[in-house]
Amino acid sequence: MKKSYEEINExxxxxxxxxxxxxxxxxxxxxxxxxxAAAKVDVVTTGTFGIMCSSGAxxxxxxxxxxxxxxxxxLNEVPAYAGIAAVDAYIGATELMTGDPANTxxxxxxxxxxxxxxxxxxxxxxxxxxxxxxxxxxxPLRRLEKTLTIADLRDAFIFNPRNSYQNYNVGVNCGDKxxxxxxxxLKPHMGNINYSTAGQxxxxxxxxxxxxxxxxxxxxxxxxxxxIGGPGTQHDPSGPRTEGxxxxxxxxxxxxxxxxxxxxxxxxxxxxxxxYGVSLMVGIGVPIPILDEEMLEFTAVTDADILSPICDYxxxxxxxxxxxxxHVTVAQLKSGQVEVLGKQIPTAPISSYPMAQEIxxxxxxxxxxxxxxxxxPAELLPTVPGxxxxxx
Amino acid sequence: MxxxxxxxxxxxxxxxxxxxxxxxxxxxxxKDYNLVPNIxxxxxxxxxxxxxxxxxxxxxxxxxxxMNYLQELGLxxxxxxxxxxxxxxxxxxxxxxxxxxxxNALYLERPSQQVHFDGEKCVVCNICIDVCPTRAMQxxxxx
Lengths: 392, 143
Prior knowledge:
Chain A has 2 domains: about 5-50 and about 165-375, no CATH class; about 55-160, no CATH class. Chain A contains 7 helices and 26 strands. Chain A has helices at about 5-15, 25-40, 115-120, 295-300, 315-320, 330-335, 355-370, and strands at about 20, 45, 50, 55-60, 70-75, 80, 90, 125-130, 145-150, 155-165, 170, 180, 185, 195, 215, 220, 225-230, 255-260, 270-275, 275-285, 285-290, 305-310, 325-330, 335-340, 345-350, 380. In chain A, strands 3, 4, 7, 10, 16, 17, 18, 19 and 20 form a 9-stranded antiparallel beta sheet that branches. Chain A has a 6-stranded mixed beta sheet with strand order 23-22-11-14-25-24. In chain A, about 50% of the residues are buried. By secondary structure, chain B is an alpha+beta fold. Chain B folds into 2 domains: about 1-80, ACT domain (Alpha-Beta Plaits), CATH 3.30.70.260; about 85-140, Alpha-Beta Plaits, CATH 3.30.70. Chain B contains 3 helices and 8 strands. In chain B, a hairpin with a 4-residue loop joins strand 6 (about 105-110) and strand 7. The radius of gyration of chain B is 17 Å and the shape is elongated. The two termini of chain B are about 30 Å apart.
């Protein structure tokens, strides 16, 4: 049994496609078996909502009168990178507000930064804009200050170089003092564990060899329609995997892009991490076409099948040494307590499972209503040698 | 029979010194003033100074007289005028706060992984306010 992208899209247009979430497909596969489930289900929707560094947005401010070649740009006093063109800039999620005391005193609070600017723009809030220039014959204006909203921007699109890590480190602290990390507060002597994954709902864990995901895949991004721009930075399919193909470390990543004017600030949030800095929570949902039984089997992955690496963020990770202590399943992490090196440790999540469910359900609805068609990637993500497929 | 209006449910912090630490005040709150004290948090330093965070319910008049009794003993009585609230729109249900909350006022429901906040259990330590990535946890002042 095989289905093509064209056949699935035709069903979506006719309102006949069977679309289920990556949670629902688990029960369907259990009840009717992989073969019957693959015949029945056309699309499985995934979702993830967590803090994703390596995010940012390209903004175009319109040409001014007289014209200006903006060399420095600040949005709510957060500097954006303007070395692109006359009125274009890139605002990065982890950029701090000018004058932020950072980690003095430690741990710093990092109340506002690039991630918050992106959220405020999407929410339609007013932003204080400031730009400076050295002036040229063709671009004479040297200073500009005004307030603006996203409606005053000519273009605004997210371009995140690395999001949606396939699997992720689980944070613990083997040192003897509390550490304040991008994985949250970690108490000494393995006092607590923080983990960040959508597990069985996570996009790349439902297509572990990237048979359907690549440059051009249409996705849910921040409440609007976005696209995958190719492999994200640090994409690495080569690490160890379970028998089912689940990588037992970070592995795949996605570069994603999408029009901010379509987005909803519920699904894109600026965040402050105590003692670490600012960043952005991003909501992503990727649809997986059930092209054959193998794809159905992949999407039926459960939290019990996913092994994540417990890493020491107290001593090893900061030192750049191999930080892995052990592996545990996402199901164990979600139970609230795991045993590591003979010690029972309480766990807490960083990535929102309820929001991941909401995103998978929203994408399912879009597809069922015929508002969202699947796109065949122009180029699949690089995969493990021997696992390349051509879907013709 | 007391009217419902006369019932109070308050949180207080008692700070005591080495001289007052040996007073069995919780016993007297129950026995002499018919109050229902709930010890939420207690800490005593090596020098026998410390504090007690109590939730107290009972009749308003009994509560007032009990506070007089505690002050006459030489204890500092501070009623808890701040409490922590959650801005539901800002909360993303990420769950990071549940790992640091000392009183399980913030907790995960399983298997749904929904994050709940039980204000009754909150000891107003404020750590969630610093930890929450979207600053959904906030201080509110009573009245």
